[in-house]
Amino acid sequence: MEPLVLFNTLSRTKEIFKPLKKPATIYNCGPTVYHDQHIGNFRTAMTVDLLKRTLLHAGYSVKHITNITDVGHLTDDVGGTGEDRMEIGAKREGITALQVARKYEKMYKADLHELNNISPFKWTRATEHINEQIALVKKLERLGYTYRTSDGIYFDSSRCSDYGKLAGLKNVQQQAGKRVDLGEKKSPTDFALWKFAAPGVKRQMEWKSPWGVGFPGWHIECSAMAMKYLGETIDIHAGGIDLIPVHHTNEIAQSECATGKPFVRFWVHGAFVIEGEEKMSKSKGNVKTMEWIKENGFAPLDYRYLTLQTHYRKELSVTLESLAAARSARHSIVNFIASATHRGGHIIKAALQKFDAALTNDLNAPQAVAVLWDVMGSDASDADKRTTILVMDEVFGLDLKHAKKIAVVIPAEIQKLLDARAQARAEKNWAASDAIRDEIRVRGFEVSDTATGQTIQPVL
Ligand code: AMP
Ligand code: ZN
Question: Does the Cβ of 31 fall within 6 Å of ligand 1?
Fold first, then answer.
């Protein structure tokens, strides 16, 4: 297999990836568990899974950590002010902040399981790593990178000479002169490492610290937990592109100032799921959830297939039509594997080479899916096709090794066209009948006429 090439946000170029040592280490920013996750969050989680599966397919061992943000993520995550999202969830649901956290964590993991993501080596919860976070803040304090205000301990970004390098932020210090409400911060890019509980307010989640009772800032958890489990320099850190300018920028600043070493070698960022022109996000209220996918008659794996058809660095918009097309394509593959009962096939080497070439080129999953379809349509034996596709599926994660025949689902709009065509045929309007057949074909189905009427098959 050719070396894996990944686009590294830090260098803004594609670079050859090799782990520093064994195993390759991956950290990704997981969910803030105060609400249902939306399909955008799950897309990013599946991008990380695709990356991990590609590394495993390439023969590397992988150690992967995902965090669960269950404290400290405030409503204004750029300014680092506002209310803790966990406390908002608690008020909304009339249960404790911790109950909210565990409830949505459980739902998140159940959805990921249905999407067939490989579980991380460890899920790390922010609330279970308070000591590690305090220790990191103490270290930064000792090294002179912090200052105190009336509401917390802040990171002094002016002391970090390459602050903002991930996002290409320039003139960071000039921004400090901009007319923004800094509060007691010295610069807009400074951020809270530890926040004090407001005077007279008893928070549900608070801990003692050398600076007073309070809670960790949002960014410090990822640095503390990533370094604890994966070491001071990790191979790959992943997340959605929204995290580049603030969260990941701050993770780099505090980690590198604390250790004097590069924190992350490869930064991998996935593009958004969008609604219309906008990012799908809880705060905009334009979210679709896994529940929405299922209510509309789709399996989570249909969504997984759909995400594979768009490169992870391109935006994706998810509609019922695109899900329907993904579903019929996935069903065809599942049905082929379920019916190809001959065992003992051989890997079709030329196809696997093309497949590997697609993936090693910055995880080009759409191209890898096209290779799968080339195999499906080829004149190789069914046993060879099956064996080859099952190897590919170790990366796609469509759970094909458990494939069982599925009855083909005819989407409602196709059924309408079929009815219209039956009517046209009854009226001997052959031109209309042929036109409708073409339209059905464009939508992914092939109609044939038999003595008992029309039959329909997905186009392979
Ligand atoms: P959050 O729960 O908002 O902290 O997000 C969890 C993960 O989902 C992070 O890696 C985000 O970058 C990612 N994410 C958030 N919104 C989207 C979106 N619309 N499309 C893709 N990924 C997203
Ligand atoms: Zn993070």
Answer: yes
